[in-house]
Amino acid sequence: MKKNLLTFAGALICCLLWGSAIPSIKLGYELWNIEGNDTWTIIAFAGIRFFLAGVLVILISSIIKRKFLLPRLKEIKDIFILSLFQTIGQYIFFYLGLAHTSGVNTAVVDSLTTFFAIIMASLVFKMEKLTGRKLLGCALGFTGVLVINLSGGEYHINLLGDLLVAMSALCYGVSSVLIKKYSKEHDTVLFSGYQFMMGGLVMVIVSMFGGQKIISKTALSPAYFDGQAYKAVLILLYLSLISSVAYTLWGILLRTNDVSKISIFGFMTPIFGVILSAILLGEGLGLKYLIALLFIGLGIITVNYQKNLDHSTD
Fold it and tell me: The pTM is what?
């Protein structure tokens, strides 16, 4: 029970951090003067954020271990493969999809990440059994996301945008399984740090071919920030810290638990995002969020209750 409580607390901390990224990214766009429809500049901003996150992970871990962490030559290929799904594919597909579909569509389709993670772990990599309870738990969590995003709104299918967001969710599902696989043989923290650095660098390079503006505009140009340069830098550092702490902790949790047990908590991220947006940005809250939280909570309990039943029948 104590181990489970620590695991659940760790997963909720990750979701809380990712939830705080939602209003923080909005503030970041405002401080860095990034337009919401400027997709390639957004990708560049995300790339810089993830590169810094990787630097922070490696730097802090190196200080703790009193030696500089360097990957072995044979690990570089696996780090690139992980980065291809966890950072490069997931976020490039996400932002390109967001540019071609609505925010409601994006939130709903992106919530399929938990489904994909469990299906990949169960049916493709054969790491665990796919059970009715796991599917029911995912359905309950997905219902909670629908309650948040479809109350008072409508879902209109946008084939290109929705497909790109679905590809982003699939990349996340694959990366969750890869993290668990690689963590059995490699240092989870090392892999987390270097995949961020590699992925962030690739995103920045790709965005430069797409015509991003952030690097040229911010080249020591104080006027670009309207006198708020220090706030812009601080919000970027905070976003980098979110990624470095949350993804590293998430990787550690996946290493010692079933993918389904941890991934189901991902449905809590939009709940935390809504609550923190209400606090930080003054956005409203309503009864639908309590209903959504109820469905998501039931989904988490359903998936993890199955885990307990599995142990009790061994």
Answer: 0.81
